[in-house]
Design a protein that fits this description.
about 300 residues, mainly alpha, Alpha-lytic protease prodomain-like, Alpha-Beta Plaits, 2 domains, three-stranded mixed sheet, elongated, disordered N terminus
Length: about 300
């Protein structure tokens, strides 16, 4: 029997189209930016700028990972994956976090080696070209962060949001590079490799945040408490609902699953209580677009002593 949800070959969802547009811009900008920073770092003898160039180059590879993750997670349900493929985007985010961390550690170790060498007088003083490149990088990477984050929010993509924070970490690392280069030019050459260590810390923090968010979505973490309270309030306003016995939520990639047990008048017919359950189901999926599936169970309402009073 042919699976009814089989994806048509060659089709692309609006979310994939938006993600690919961002990815194309990101790759083009990062290639130009990393080359600019590498040339400036070599010409101006700045280890911090060369480290920053490596960080920007890593963004190109991370963007390819994001594109793969978005493509796979957008596949429709099939016979072997009847709940869809959304969690595969979380896998892409985890891979991105690991690569980001490895990049940061490599940059940090290089800075530590220069600092522990002790011969600070032998460290070259960076030229003004490296300082200008750092300033340009801060502006460009912050713009890329905002541009990517806006699209990630609109399509609810965790992997794309991870890539956005990759851009922000690059912007912060460029700030560190700027400070290090400026300090080195003011007579403190050790500040240039010290900036590489600071860059490492920024990258490690971004990697940790990306990893934690992806894991939360893999292990059925609940939605935030405010969202659950809002859901319960809206359910209680519906006609025929006498109470909410249980409300459970879980994250499934960028989507949510909701399981609800409502209380209804036990003397009503099965058809009438089913209609009430349908109202709850439709309202949840209408009011919360990220809900992929909502299951509603009806319990007979039990009167309490307070109700009798």
């Amino acid at each position: 029997m042919k699976w009814p949800y089989k994806e048509n070959a060659g089709t692309r969802t609006p979310e994939e189209t938006a993600a690919y547009q961002v990815a194309t811009v990101t790759i083009a900008v990062n290639v130009v930016l990393s080359l600019m920073k590498l040339i400036a770092g070599v010409a101006a003898s700045s280890g911090a700028m060369i480290s920053d160039a490596v960080h920007s180059a890593s963004d190109v590879f991370s963007t390819f990972i994001v594109m793969i993750g978005v493509k796979i997670s957008g596949k429709k349900s099939d016979a072997d994956h009847q709940y869809g493929h959304e969690r595969l985007e979380c896998i892409a985010s985890i891979i991105l976090a690991v690569l980001l961390l490895l990049t940061g550690l490599k940059i940090g170790m290089g800075g530590v080696e220069k600092i522990t060498g002790g011969n600070y007088g032998s460290l070259a003083v960076p030229g003004t070209l490296a300082l200008a490149a750092a300033a340009v990088s801060v502006v460009v990477k912050e713009w890329m962060f905002r541009y990517t984050r806006r699209t990630a929010r609109s399509i609810h993509s965790g992997a794309l949001m991870a890539d956005a924070w990759h851009h922000r970490s690059d912007a912060l690392s460029s700030v560190g590079a700027f400070i290090g280069i400026l300090g080195a030019r003011m007579g403190y050459p050790v500040l240039d490799p010290a900036a590489s260590v600071v860059i490492c810390l920024f990258i490690a923090k971004a990697a940790y945040d990306i990893f934690r968010d992806a894991v939360d979505k893999l292990v059925d973490k609940s939605c935030d408490a405010q969202t659950e309270r809002e859901m319960e309030e809206k359910i209680l306003r519906l006609e025929g609902v006498l109470g909410v016995d249980r409300l459970q939520t879980r994250l499934f990639g960028a989507k949510m699953y909701v399981d609800i047990e409502i209380a209804a008048d036990g003397s009503r017919t099965l058809y009438e209580t089913h209609q009430t359950a349908e109202q709850v189901h439709d309202m949840i999926e209408r009011e919360y677009p990220l809900v992929k599936h909502c299951m509603v169970h009806v319990n007979p309402y039990k009167k309490t002593e307070q109700d009798s009073e």
